[in-house]
Amino acid sequence: MLSIEQLNEKIPDFAKDVRLNLTSLMADETLSPQRQYGLLLASAIATRNADVIAAMESAAVAVMTPVAIEAAKSAAAVMAMNNVYYRFVHLASNPEYKTMPPRLRMNVIGSPGVDKSDFELWCHLLSPP
Length: 129
Description:
This protein is mostly helical. It is built from seven helices and no strands.
């Protein structure tokens, strides 16, 4: 399994900005370890790359509780669901979709198991600009 540092070294030049952002996040001392590694883990899950996810989860285990790790994973899952649904509604040619209630289950938002500001940060990271 790759460490975060090893993973960062494998990022190709065409993704230099990703490499620089990962380096910046790892060096950030303003975030608590839980917030920092929750961001890393939620971002990794969004990549859907098994090596990236494994590296970030392995690093997160050292600083996050199992409950916080599940919350970061839940943030990624909820935002993936929202991003797909709302992008579809935006692009759909049938305007009726815009009037229909989404009926998406998002119970984890009400009780994520961690401080809500941490959970919201992880979710916000994964929301479209």
